[in-house]
Amino acid sequence: MDMDLIRNFIGGTWQAAASGRTQDNLNPASGAVLGKVVASGADEVAAAVGAAKAALPEWRSLPAPRRGEILFRAAAILRRRKDEVARALTQEEGKSLTDAGGEVQRAINCLEFSAGEGRRSFGQVIPSELPSNLIYTRRIPLGVVALVTPWNFPVAIPVWKAAAALVCGNTIVLKPASSTPWCALLISEILAEAGMPAGVWNVVFGPGGVVGDTLVNHPDVAAISFTGSNDIGQRLYALGATRGKKVQCEMGGKNALIVLDDADLDLAAAAAVQGAFYSSGQRCTATSRLVVMANVAAPLLAQIRERTEALKVGDGLAPGVQVGPLVDEKQLGTVLKYIEIGKGEARLLCGGERLKGELAGGYFVAPTVFGEVSRDHRLAREEIFGPVLSVLAVTDEAEAFAVANDSRYGLSSSVYTRDVGRVFRYIDQIETGILHVNSPTVGGEAQVPFGGLKETGVGGREQGTTALDFFTEWQSIYIDYTGSRRTASFY
Ligand code: NAP
């Protein structure tokens, strides 16, 4: 498959879209055209759902350990092609090659973890009130599942959803973000090479408003697993509910890193800079708010500023680059808009501009820190999804936790302290799905549930064994082996 024109992957073959329309796939570091991708419509969605439906009976009846073997092979192929996939990811999405390598490794880990679930997706044997009566439960697949995914983790997110869905016996139609089709193409190649039967995995490229909506409305799609913005996710959730579908949405974040006055400030400063600026702040778990006790704010901010100004920004493929561009012009516009809002609300400590000179051809923004932010500022409340860190000073631990919780979102958080009592009060009081103690707000492991509280997440956790709860239904089975007629237990 070449990159000149990326086509849909339906029923095991690469297929053009009937409309003949295409969209350019751009490198955000330079604006160079990497290739083109088809822009599909309702017909292509119908074909992909049809292929997934046709492949379902055979795939769901394949024993789960055999399904897992295909995923293990996919993990091995992805490991072999790790550098190639990471380079594609950097060129298409912009993150540094180091961050891209980390993302691909996460995808490998997810494949391996889910592959193992093929041997472990246990049910229960449940005691009966009646003699000679066996009751057990088992998981069954949902059917055809639609995955709708964002551009910021275009390898890991489709893979972590797909690996869990596939091992459970579902077939898939993926609608990836329009700005990262190359990664979806590579995932398709790898699954095909691993021996995934035709029709089990399908990909349709095209605008979200057309392809995404058509998928959610399709009567043969049983469930939707979405990751992306709240605007779209909440709409899809409502739409899915009216169609009686199972829907899982992982959405925005406004993650806080809390630094208490007994913290190791070196560690905290390094974590803040890594969490806020690596991947250009375009991570759902990125550190967006720094909540610091006022009596240590000055030395901490001095360190953060020094580390931020030393970051190497540039094309993610260049050696030593730590911060790449924003993904596209729209995202650049959003981030620059918030920087202007911030200049009116708070105090700019560093950054605060689009980078010019040799970086003028790409969507680069200087890593930016705002001080003197208060909890009612837009900087403190709205998801920016770019390299912007807002610093909120507080007087004590209680205020720190209250400020951290003062958000509609609840994905990730972190505390820096050496006091064990403070650690456990943080764990007891903070309203996020992921909590870190003395480590950055970013990062996670494949075997651990992932997702947020409040308006961040709805419909159940991804990854870990909890992912199986979304991608399966339970059946309860009663077997009477008395061989005689008897009344039911409730008579
Ligand atoms: P987005 O604009 O909501 O897009 C996500 C996906 O939905 C894309 O595939 C998009 O397609 C599609 N879409 C757009 N409009 C649609 C519609 N009307 N119906 C159905 N699908 C539609 O989000 P994004 O900008 O790609 O990603 C950034 C957001 O994702 C941030 O808010 C971030 O916090 C969130 N995120 C959350 C997590 C988490 O686990 N909580 C992880 C990563 C990212 P097109 O690309 O064609 O528009």
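^ NAP complex. The mean pLDDT is 97. The chain has 15 helices and 23 strands.
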